[in-house]
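Late entry, evening session. Most of the bench is empty. Finally got around to the prediction I had been postponing all week. Sequence below, unchanged from the version circulated by S.P.
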Amino acid sequence: MIAIYLSLILLLTIFVGFELIRKVPATLHTPLMSGANAISGITVVGALSLAGGESNEMATWLSAFAVMLATVNVVGGYLVTDRMLAMFKKR
């Protein structure tokens, strides 16, 4: 029963996030990307603490996967932000 509620929350979160990001003007994209990178950095720290903890094997694998995905998100976000900022530099 709780899985149904969690799935509903996940779907609602995906929908709301998509709608919010779609309506963001391009001038605000870079500051929002920086905030998202900070949140992903927090996710990396939390997942690292879970991966290194003494929990069951499934939690360790899921947290290791979360570390990988959040790290990809942070690195990719910083690369995109750097590229966008380079577009505004005077040549």
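Two things to note before I forget:
Residues 57-87 form the longest helix (31 residues).
DSSP finds three helices and no strands in the chain.
Will write this up properly tomorrow.
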